[in-house]
Model the fold of this input.
Amino acid sequence: MRHIVIGTAGHIDHGKSALVKALTGTDPDRLKEEKLRGITIDLGFAHLDLGAVQAGIVDVPGHERFVKNMLAGVGGIDLVLLVVAADESIMPQTREHFEICRLLGIERGIAVITKADLVEPELIELVREEIAAAASGSFMEGAPIIPVSSLTGVGVEELKTAIRDVSLRIPPRPADRLLRLPIDRAFTVRGFGTVVTGTLTSGEVRKDEEVQLIPGGLTARVRGIQIHGRATDHAIAGQRTAVNLQGVDLSHVERGHVVTVPDQFQATQLVDVRLSMLPAAQPLRNLIKVRFHQGTSEVLARVSLLGRDSLGKGETDYAQMRLDAPLFCLHGDAFIIRQFSPTVTIGGGRILHPGPAKHKATDRQVRADLETLDKGSFAEKIPVFLKAHSRRMLDLRELNTLLGLTNSVIRAQLQEVAKSGAIIIVTAPVPILILPGTIVNLERETLALVSRFHSDNPLLKGISREELRKRLFGDLPMEVFRSCLDGLVQAKKIWLQDEMASLHGREVQLSEVELLLRDRIESVFRESGYQPPSISELAASHQADAALVRKIYFWMLRERILVKISEDLTYHREVLEEIKHKIHASYSPGSRFGVAEFKQLFDLTRKHAIPLLEFLDRERFTRRQGNDRVLL
Ligand SMILES: Nc1nc2c(ncn2[C@@H]2O[C@H](COP(=O)(O)OP(=O)(O)OP(=O)(O)O)[C@@H](O)[C@H]2O)c(=O)[nH]1
Ligand SMILES: [Mg+2]
Done:
């Protein structure tokens, strides 16, 4: 069974609502005022049961003052019924509605000549010719044109057959996208609470699942779903859907909000677009205010043209829209713009980037990037999205905020892009996508920083890993840092030892003077044996620059020539080895000895003996037991 959504379109009073009633038995005009005035004001809905084809019909108003309502209804439709009254033929809103369908990228239509009972057959033929001429070169070229009388019923069955035929040829909506249900109506039902309706443009929604409303970010639970008035557990893309939301108050929900999956999307106030002006439109001046329609929402916006003062009638170019209020849209979504006043439709196009940076109007690269987002393949677009982000990388989730694909689809597609070498995927809980050039730059900066660190700190072995990360990768994900460093280590450009990064192959080189001092300090520690000097004593006795002594002392610690065992006790490594030897020579493993014995063995005072014993405990050479030590 195929589910499709049909929209009516056409001039006021041309018989759209009467046609919906003739097709379905439902009068789509539901408001009191509509019945009173005999015109449609807001969207109306009906269900057309054609057996294998189940269609939701959205009936739109023809009055020029209500085109904004028409726009909220026409967004998600698969097929348009372009209604033209036989006694009036094509009129201004026939053209405006038709242009809107064209700009929104609607791909299929059937023209219906209504009120066929009112005119002679020759006139119907004239209207048919006018419609064919207007449709030429558009998505409706060659579309069926069917005369109908809603009054007598003539042509209604033929129209149903045409609708069934066209519908069965409509490819199913791609199943690769996440849930989006742009709300066109919100109301309360006694005993149930808030209900929203709309055309489920992508994905699916299930009973009891959690959903989010954007903008606003409120979450709710799906308490019930209805399709064409029947309760169901599950609705899919292409169905007119009513959702009973638990946990949100009606006052927080309105037309223009979108029901979607939780924690994935956010609204935007800046979008990059491809904008086409209608042939009859006034030229659009840079930064002029317009009405921006997308999905079921309408916001005011300024059009920032790229390095030009105006966009003339019939012209197409890239532009950035600054929206007055947040709106939820994705790459590839269609939109319409209408003049601020008087409100007429002047153009429309496609969203290229739903969350870009602000552009400099003169930046040539911007135009090239937008062209790729407009015309490029998926693999060509991804690097542009990465480039457009300030960090020049995105995690998979962030990228999908722009695309709205299902998890498995986006993962598979990105694997393909990575295989081509256009991006690098860094493994992380949420995989991170980076341009190869960004990694190259980070590696170059890392090498430069390490080598600068070496020249500033010649006696240090290298920069600590953590400091390196803070200085260069401060706001970048840990995994990116790790991957860069690993890459450099594998390429034998960096040495990583004891959490210290140094240039590969680098040895700390001491100057002549430093070498001499180093030798002297070493012999002092060797010769003083079990009672080594403190560092201040050391500096004083050598009459050398205290800072230099300190520097070399620290270097010797890092090189493990000296070992610091407590705040003010440092031993030569060999002396410590000797101490261990001597203990082994005097005791067998498992035997005990006390502090006094230890003092005696090495001829030590408490000042040296206690820190030494504690050091040996820490080294797991001995273990303290009461006041004694056990040799391990
Ligand atoms: N004789 C005749 N009258 C029709 C036919 N279809 C509609 N009408 C009449 O035309 C008038 C307008 O019909 P609607 O269906 O309300 O027109 P509409 O296009 O929905 O108008 P809006 O929604 O306001 O744009 C009504 O008085 C209908 O009875 C038809 O096939 N034959
Ligand atoms: Mg109507």
